Amino acid sequence: MDRVQVVKQESAALGGDAADEAPYDSPIDPQEDAIEAAGVYLQDPSNRDEDVLVTRDGDDMTFKDVSNPAEVTLSDLIAGAGGLTIAAHRIVRQLIHFINDGPAEGFASGAYKETTYSGVKATDEIWYESVSKAKKIVELTTTWAGIKKTAEVWKVYDTDGSTVLATVTDAISYSGIKETSRTRTIA
Fold this sequence. Notes:
By secondary structure, the chain is mainly beta. The chain is built from 2 helices and 10 strands, in the order ββββααββββββ. The protein has a 6-stranded antiparallel sheet, with no helix packed on it. A 4-stranded antiparallel sheet has the order 1-2-3-4.
């Protein structure tokens, strides 16, 4: 691949430097000049086409190619690649955000937890968006055999409060009364 210089045509009327208006056959200064264009079709050694495009829509840089024909913004790409903003990361409904004990930053105040018991043992802990219990956020179901927890099942729910986004199940093993291992299944 060869590195080439674009011949510049600079005009003070179009945002350039008046001192650089002539001659028109000099190459751009790569440490000073920026090329102005509505978009760029990127090529490779075997293609000269319009299949890969970088352009602009308002204040957003956009990208499009054959594998991704729907134009996407740089923000879309960053979010899709896991480069979430701090604010966006706080509201992601992934179990890692809840496994300790319910929702925190990024969720509205007023979340409500309800716990049900079998005797003195908690069997279900459900966090809802509010005391109305209309929408679940996260749920922990615990199975017991005597004094031993034999399984924990975590479920995280979508914003509709009923669609399960992910389930994590821990099968717990013991030696006597001491926990010795867990086998985790993620679905």
